[in-house]
Amino acid sequence: MNTFLGFGREHVERHYRKTGQSVYMHLKRHVKEKATGAAGGAIPRRRNGKVFLDLELNRDFNGDEYDCEDEAKLVIFPDHFEIPLPNIEELPALVTIACDAVLNAASAYKKQEPDSWDEEIQVSKHARSLRQQDNGVRIPPSGWKCQKCEMKENLWLNLSDGAVLCGKWFFDGSGGNGHALDHFKDTNFPLAVKLDNLTLDIADIYSFDEEEAVLDPQISEHLQHFGIDIIPIQRNGTDNGHHNTDNTNGMRPRVSEWEVIQESGMKLKAVYGSGFTGIKNLGNSCYLGTIMQVLFSIPEFQRAYVGNLQRIYDYSPLDPSTDFSTQMAKLGHGLLSGLYSKPPMKSELIEQVMKEEYKHQPKGISLKMFKALVSNGHPEFSSNRQQDAQKFFLHLINLVERNCVGLENPNNAFRYLVEERVQCCQTQKVRYTQKVDYLMQLPAPIEAASNREELIAYEAKRNEAEENMRAPPEPVRARIPFTACLQAFTEPENVPDFWSSELQAKSAGVKTSRFASFPEYLVVQIKKFTFVVDWVPKKVDLSIDMPDFLDLSRLRGTGLQAGEQELPDLTPPIVLPEDTRDNSMNSSDSPEIDESAAMQLAEMGFPLEACRKAIYYTGNMGPEMAFNWIIAHMEEPDFAEPLALPTFMEPGPSVASSGLAATPLDNHPPEESIAILTSMGFPRRHTVQALKATNNNLERALDWIFTHTEREEEEEETSDALSDMADTTEPNDSAFSNANTHSDSTLSPDQDASGPQIKDGPGRYELFAFISHIGASTMSGHYVCHIKKEGRWVIFNDHKVCLSERPPKDLGYIYFYRRLSSS
Q1: Which of 49, 366, 523, 789 could serve as 439's disulfide partner, Cβ 3.0–4.6 Å?
Q2: Count H helices, E strands: the chain?
Q3: Which H or E run contains 806?
Q4: pLDDT score at 746
């Protein structure tokens, strides 16, 4: 009664022993079928007038046929003494007030839902009178970049002149350099809209003049001025959160896709028991449910959370609703225990047959508390809109990484190294680097479709129907061979803004990707979604003959080959905003440094050369940022040395002499990223280590620092043991054997033990699960997953779990493969 935490019967004793809290309120709802002849259409009667804790009547219990009765009582531990409620006469006033507060409290998920509505956004005073310049600006659907710096994220479109500029910089390393605000100060153009995930329903508009988020009733017209034609995202129209087939842009509903993926036209046999528990759809939450079903079918996740269930519960915080490991263990137990997936009793079936009806459906488990935790603070997943399952998978991987301290890290099953080979087209020299990844994105080249002639004929008929204003023809689905997708993956791709260290200038460059290691479980995403010219998010209708068995051995990286010449290991110069850059400066001149800012810092007593370095490494972002850099680097031996521009690096010690079988990743973090983190007070060594471990992602690097600092001493003690273990691994036959082994030994992509662990092995796999999407966009539609269990394919469609008759393996969106044993 001191908190609003709720516990089931099996957990309340543990909470009592842990906290000493002895007074609990027991809440129970009794659902009873109405007597024969009761008036239909009546609202369910509650004999207790209070609706405690927002308990909802299960949808399976039709309000016309059932009554419900709520019961509340106090329970005193350890003797389980019960006091029925209400009981104003016998209870002290303080206890009565506490009881009323609990009975009238809104649950955590109910509190979360209206958050977006509590802060009412007003229409901007500039919306109706906004003047837009006729400057011919047209915004493409992708490839945006800040006009004053190199930022490609957190970009805002000024609705007056079409300028694309970056937003403000935030403490966690996200955001931008504030050029959108600077533009307002220079021009007084007040309104800007964020370009990410832009639709008519989802438009983040900010008024610099009013200094708050605003609404713009004419947003569609204002965007069309710059060539952006957005359409509203279709909302779901059913009770269970499913989106019916999309019918946007006048296209014919894809009934066939809806039926094929859900196997709607077949009599599917329901299955029950451990591992066959469904998940309730909370309304556009199927993206989350399908990912969790697949993850908890993997032994590594089962061991990490369900295998450690009692330990996690015993050491959970006083408020377990905020603990990620506790909620993962709770979810895994719900899916795997079989307690929530039981077949109907024989007597129930007989009674239903006698009534000529069959209503039993497994209810599944609810993920309300889990969703509230994992989506907390996330702008997309905290909403009630449909989301991209692939983005949520990576989001969950990040959460597991941050919260696996002291536990087995199940992410090791997905983690692998990518070998990237970049070649300068002018000098033909190359550079090999490695990065950590968790998911393989596989292109789907339409031009390689086996029914290309049929597609061309369909396009001609569709264009003719549009011109003559007739109904469009029956859509034709592209059939793409899997071999063509693999071929497209291996093809070289252009590197935008490639800087050649050999030429010391920007040049044309191409990149190819290979596997430096193969993961235990390979996740393959088909790149089905794209933006067309008119900004409409479009899903390409295609099928791919995904194989049950996959051999990617030929895609293993080989490293530097005989006859190849390496590009010099030089760092590109710091890119400064155009408004602070001296355009007359060439590559042979000294770097641009704000000398007045350097002198301002020197007057504070710091060495002048150190101040000049601070200004340079923080990109001339001002004395305040440079001061933070100085504080973070004062203890370095070369602190007061003159600024030295990047030069050829001396060859480092060989990998063999380092005592590790794993080659460190050659993705040395950019100095500007290091400067941002060190300016927050983190040691340079930690920031470099964090950026390497997260592929130079500032936000993830910050999380990595917080979650790994406490473990650093322990990991340093175990590094020698890991080195000894790595010495015993058997190298493969490739020229890049130091980075890849065919054994299942645990490797680290960094030379220190605190880097992410890599499990390498053969590149032969078997398909065991796939997630399919129905609809025209990831922001609408419905997700279904198929998982192979005990040699049988099972379909998980929200709370319904059945044996699959025809698993639509050619229409999947995300595929999950497990490595075949070497035997």
Answers
A1: 523
A2: 24, 28
A3: none
A4: 42
Token pair recorded at residue 451: 């029914």
Output the 3-class SS for 414-463: CCEEEEEEEEECCCCCEEEEEEEECCEEECCCHHHCCCHHHHHHHHHHHH
Neighbouring C-alpha atoms within 13 Å toward the C-beta of 641: 9
pLDDT band at 3 (very low <50, low <70, confident <90, very high): low
Mean pLDDT of 36-48: 43
- Which two structure tokens, joined as six digits, stand for 618? 């923080």
Those residues with Cβ within 8 angstroms of residue 817's Cβ, 6 or more apart along the chain or in another chain: 521, 522, 523, 524, 550, 765, 766, 767, 768
DSSP-based three-state secondary structure for 418: strand
Q: Coil, strand or helix: which one is 773?
A: strand
- In the numeric block, the tokens 């001149």 are attached to 589
DSSP string, 498-538: -EETTTTEE--EEEEEEESS--SEEEEEE--EEE-TTS-EE
Residue 530: phi and psi, rounded to 5, are -150, 170
**Which amino acid does the sequence have at 648?**
F
Find the catalytic residue in 68, 99, 286, 424: 286
**Each residue of 474-530: pLDDT tens digit?**
888 999 999 999 999 999 998 877 888 888 888 889 999 999 999 999 999 999 877
Rounded to whole angstroms, how far apart are CA atoms 655 and 644? 28
**Active-site entry in 126, 183, 782, 786:** 782
Contact residues for 407 (Cβ-Cβ < 8 A; gap 6+): 304, 308, 312, 325
The helix (run of H) or strand (run of E) holding residue 639 is none
Closest CA to 703 of 404, 408, 417: 404
Q: CB of 424 within 8 A of CB of 500?
A: yes
Place of tokens 């109706």: 128
| 424 carries a ligand binding annotation | no
pLDDT score recorded for residue 145: 85
Is 179 annotated for ligand binding? yes
Average pLDDT of the residues in 180-190: 92
Give yes or no for a contact between 186 and 163, defined as CB atoms under 8 angstroms apart. Answer: no
Asked if residue 595 lies in contact with residue 609, where contact means CB atoms within 8 angstroms, the answer is: no
Residue 635: the pLDDT is 72
More confident residue, 816 or 360: 816
- 3-state SS of 224-286 is HCCCCCCCCCCCCCCCCCCCCCCCHHHCCCCHHHHHHHHCCCCCCCECCCCCCCCECCCCCCH
pLDDT at 651 over 60: no
> Rounded to whole angstroms, what are the CA distances from 162 to 127, 182, 183, 227?
15, 15, 11, 10
Cα separations in angstroms, 189 against 183, 206, 274, 747: 8, 11, 60, 54
Question: In the predicted model, is pLDDT for residue 744 greater than 50?
Answer: no
Q: How many Å separate Cα 397 from the centre of its chain?
A: 8
The Cα 215–Cα 549 span in angstroms is: 52
* φ/ψ bin of 136: left (φ > 0), alpha (ψ from -120 to 50), beta (otherwise): left
pTM: 0.64
From the centroid of its chain, how far is CA 787? Answer: 21
- Of the pLDDT bands very low, low, confident and very high (cuts 50, 70, 90), residue 362 is low
Residue 86 region by backbone torsions, left for phi larger than 0, else alpha for psi between -120 and 50, else beta: beta
Is 425 among the residues known to form the active site?
no
> Is residue 146 marked as binding?
yes
Structure tokens at 733: 């036959």
Residue 416: helix, strand or coil by DSSP? strand
Instruction: Name the residue type at position 81.
Output: F
Report the sign of the C-alpha dihedral through residues 541, 800, 111, 7, in that order.
Answer: negative
3-state helix, strand, coil in the chain (%, to 5): 30, 20, 50
Given a contact cutoff of 8 angstroms between Cβ atoms, the answer to whether 616 and 644 are in contact is: no
* 200/229 Cα distance (integer angstroms): 9
The model's pLDDT over 450-459, given as tens digits with 9 standing for 90+, comes to: 999 999 999 8
Region of poorest pLDDT, from 124-133, 326-335, 344-353: 344-353
Catalytic-residue membership of 633:
no
Give me the residue label for tokens 């699960």: 769
